[in-house]
TrEMBL record:
One of its GO terms (molecular function) is oxidoreductase activity, acting on the CH-OH group of donors, NAD or NADP as acceptor. Residues 12-187 form the Ketoreductase domain. Belongs to the short-chain dehydrogenases/reductases (SDR) family. This is Short-chain dehydrogenase/reductase SDR. InterPro entries: KR_dom (IPR057326), NAD(P)-bd_dom_sf (IPR036291), Sc_DH/Rdtase_CS (IPR020904), SDR_fam (IPR002347). The lineage of its organism: Archaea, Methanobacteriati, Methanobacteriota, Stenosarchaea group, Halobacteria.
Length: 254
């Protein structure tokens, strides 16, 4: 009988940057639940400790270390600690988030640069720092369906995410065949970043529900399956890809 690869990350070591909240934390906990050792990091010590406690609850190993993706040396320090503790990194997830809504003509240069620095340059720094020490494995960048959309007052966000998709494709080509690089493009997901905007009863929530074929916003738990797949051996021929998890929003036409 043919043996098919399992969709699992059990036994792997994963790092989730931006892993202490929302989608990133959801992925970190799902990886831990599946049997991976997981390091979930962000800028805030208390948040790192809180998520580490949840990860340990699944009976796997973790490490508590903060990291700021705007600072290359803090990513290198994180990488070196993970390598010292676990010997290797098999999966890197980049899920750092920030939101600032401003009209194009009111957007300051600083406002533009800040978003690009966190969401695009941060993914560059993290991918490069970790890839330099990964013999093989999987990198998963959390992009957004906004990469393909003209979202209101979100120009730097949309542009950064389009950049993340492009970076993902180029890195996939250069790091092949040993390290696969893919992106996940979520649609509207309820997280601490979005919970006020997408709260029940708001105008934007009504529009989201109306225009999304699945008819609602997603829970973060609905994004993790694609991350487990991309991190697993079952995705061994998938690289440079953007996986849309958007309830059909981007393909919805009249
Ligand atoms: N929610 C959605 O509807 C949605 C849709 C599409 C795509 N996405 C994408 O999914 C990703 C996660 O979003 P989310 O909604 O889960 O956001 P979230 O709940 O706000 O989580 C963002 C995480 O990033 C960390 N972070 C922020 N700045 C950082 C920095 N400079 N260095 C390191 N960590 C930093 C935060 O922790 P600290 O503040 O402690 O650093 C937090 O752990 C983002 O890339 C977002 O664009 C979200």
């Amino acid at each position: 009988m043919t043996e098919f690869p399992e969709i699992t990350v059990a036994g792997k070591t994963a790092v989730v940057v931006g892993g202490t909240s929302g989608i990133g934390e959801g992925i970190a906990l799902a990886f831990a639940d599946d049997g991976a050792d997981v390091v979930a990091t962000s800028r805030t010590e208390a948040a790192v400790a809180d998520t580490a406690e949840k990860i340990r609850g699944y009976g796997v190993e973790t490490l508590e270390q903060t990291c700021d993706v705007t600072d290359y040396s803090s990513i290198e320090a994180l990488r070196d600690s993970v390598l010292e503790t676990f010997g290797q990194v098999d999966i890197l997830v980049n899920s750092v988030g920030t939101a600032a809504r401003t009209e194009f003509l009111d957007l300051s240069e600083e406002g533009w640069l800040d978003v690009i620095d966190v969401l695009l340059n941060g993914v560059f720094r993290s991918c490069q720092a970790f890839a330099r020490e990964m013999d093989e494995g999987s990198i998963i960048n959390i992009s957004s369906m906004s990469a393909d959309l003209a979202r209101s007052r979100l120009m730097p966000y949309c542009a950064a995410k389009a950049g993340v998709n492009s970076l993902t494709q180029c890195a996939a080509k250069e790091l092949a065949p040993d390290v696969r690089v893919n992106a996940i493009a979520p649609g509207f997901v309820m997280t601490p970043l979005t919970k006020e905007e997408y709260a029940e009863g708001t105008e934007i929530r009504k529009q989201v529900d109306d225009r999304t074929p699945v008819g609602r916003v997603a829970d973060r738990e609905e994004i993790v399956g694609s991350a487990i797949y991309l991190g697993s051996e079952a995705a061994s021929f998938t690289t440079g890809e953007v996986v849309y998890v958007d309830g059909g929003f981007t393909k919805n036409a009249l």
